[in-house]
From TrEMBL:
It comes from Verticiella sediminum. This is MmgE/PrpD family protein. PANTHER family: 2-METHYLCITRATE DEHYDRATASE (PTHR16943:SF8), 2-METHYLCITRATE DEHYDRATASE-RELATED (PTHR16943). One of its GO terms (molecular function) is lyase activity. InterPro entries: MmgE/PrpD_sf, MmgE/PrpD_sf_1, MmgE/PrpD_sf_2, MmgE_PrpD, MmgE_PrpD_C, MmgE_PrpD_N. Residues 9-245 form the MmgE/PrpD N-terminal domain. It holds the Pfam family MmgE_PrpD_N.
């Protein structure tokens, strides 16, 4: 008898996750994930530079069977097309959630799950089950992929996220073990996305691509498509993408004991920008509030930060690029007293006050500050024209693991994300359905509301 491969053991473990055995904390977190994901999809449809508009128009032009809804699109399309566009919308504003090790767990996975669940009229319990599977699989691949560096080389949604999407889709479609192995093998050949494209529309499409491929890989495997049954073995994903810089045993070590969506948990973003900008933003907002700082008082700004070139963008090319600029995000927080979707429009990026002050924002790379996301901090100092120089060191990151947003804060985000596209009563209906997701017979009602939401970009 041949020896069981690590990939087979991994597939067996993901297929063993069932709704009826999920801890209540996982069920609750899955509901939170779905609500946050739907909110950022709606908001992403109206991304000011046109990510949503172009993505929706592109998929509309492709046609396809009316299987699953395009959020704010007003139409249905084939499952994989809906997964693509909704995944792109979910990441369009960089407002989708993240966790440790750094990854985007929702935008590559939830759109695939929603498309399949809507088309096959599956109940909310199955959606929760699939979310738990998708998150655990993506987390395990991310943990094992030790050579996958943040902000370098391959972007995570298109590499590890695609396996989460495929696993969630496989679970929803009821794939057998051989079919699941084939789906994962096929996903290995669909993986890939370049961090080089950060700051452009293409970055958002990495999540859309992963979601679409998750549907495709699972459906093809169900139809009998063949692929390697050992994608995580020799010459597989880890060897090819990471040149062996990996710890494959982490795929199964401690799998779902507890589920990583419960421990360490999931981070929910307050601001629609790269998570590394959030500590400087919080520091800037606190300084502005405490010292009554206004733009005309500012002489210069200094941000001390660990060595992380990904967000060192002193002159972002667009408002979208500004989401990945410590300098810009810190300045806009000081000037406006808030950071919202409108903070990252071209209009705000090239406004007179921003253009005047942005060259005076200096990022000081401090080698003494740890670069690990959990342990890092930022120090913001604002030098004022009257000689004062208030400064604040920010360690805590609200919304991150260990510092969760309250329900009130999460709902504030959801209603802010949907307010331009949904009447409040419709948004509240979505909220009610999602908070009772495990009691829903299907997702047709929720997806109908989101499909017909206003697309105004």
């Amino acid at each position: 008898m041949s020896r069981k491969t690590l990939t087979t053991e991994f597939a067996e473990k993901l297929l063993a996750i069932e709704y009826r055995t999920l801890p209540s904390a996982a069920v609750d977190m899955a509901r939170q994930v779905v609500l946050d994901g739907l909110g950022v999809m709606v908001a992403g449809a109206n991304e000011p530079l046109g990510v949503g508009r172009i993505s929706i128009d592109y998929v509309r032009g492709m046609g396809g069977s009316e299987q699953a809804s395009v959020v704010t699109g007003g139409f249905k399309t084939a499952m994989q097309n809906a997964a693509y566009v909704n995944g792109t919308l979910a990441h369009a504003l960089d407002w989708d959630n993240t966790w440790y090790p750094l990854n985007h767990p929702t935008s590559p996975t939830l759109p695939a799950i929603l498309a399949i669940a809507e088309h096959h009229r599956l109940p909310g319990e199955r959606v929760i089950e699939a979310v738990a599977v998708a998150f655990e699989v993506q987390a395990r691949v991310r943990l094992a992929a030790t050579g996958l560096k943040t902000g370098q080389g391959f972007h995570k949604p298109g590499t590890t996220g695609i396996f989460g999407a495929t696993a969630g889709a496989a679970r929803l479609l009821g794939l057998s073990l051989p079919q699941t192995l084939a789906a994962l093998g096929l996903a290995g050949s669909r993986a890939g996305s370049l961090s080089l494209n950060t700051g452009t529309m293409t970055k958002s499409s990495h999540s859309g691509h992963a979601a679409r491929m998750g549907v495709e890989c699972a459906v093809l495997a169900q139809m009998g498509w063949s692929a390697s049954t050992d994608v995580f073995g020799p010459k597989g994903f880890f060897d090819t993408f990471l040149h062996g810089e990996a710890d494959p045993g982490k795929l199964v070590e401690g799998f779902a004991a507890p589920l990583r969506m419960v421990e360490p948990g999931v981070g929910f973003k307050k601001y629609p920008s790269n998570y590394f900008t959030h500590r400087p933003i919080d520091a800037a907002l606190a300084l502005r509030a405490e010292h009554g700082i206004r733009g005309e008082q500012i002489d210069s700004v200094e941000v001390r930060f660990p060595p992380f070139e990904y967000v060192n963008r002193p002159a972002p090319r667009t408002g979208l690029d500004g989401k990945f600029s410590i300098q810009y995000a810190t300045l806009v927080a000081l000037l406006d007293g808030e950071v919202t979707i409108d903070s990252f429009t071209n209009q705000r990026r090239f406004a007179v006050d921003v253009e005047a002050l942005l060259p005076s924002v200096k990022l000081v790379v401090d080698q003494a500050i740890p670069s690990e996301f959990d342990d890092t901090w930022a120090v913001v100092t604002v030098r004022l024209k009257d000689g004062r120089a208030p400064s604040l060191k920010m360690r805590e990151l609200s919304g991150w693991v260990g510092h969760p947003l309250t329900r009130e804060q999460r709902l504030k985000k959801f209603f802010a994300a949907t307010r331009h596209a949904l009447p409040e009563d419709a948004a509240r209906e979505v909220l009610g359905c999602v908070e009772r997701l495990d009691a829903q017979d299907d997702l047709l009602g929720v997806m109908s509301i989101l499909r017909d939401a206003r697309h105004c970009a």
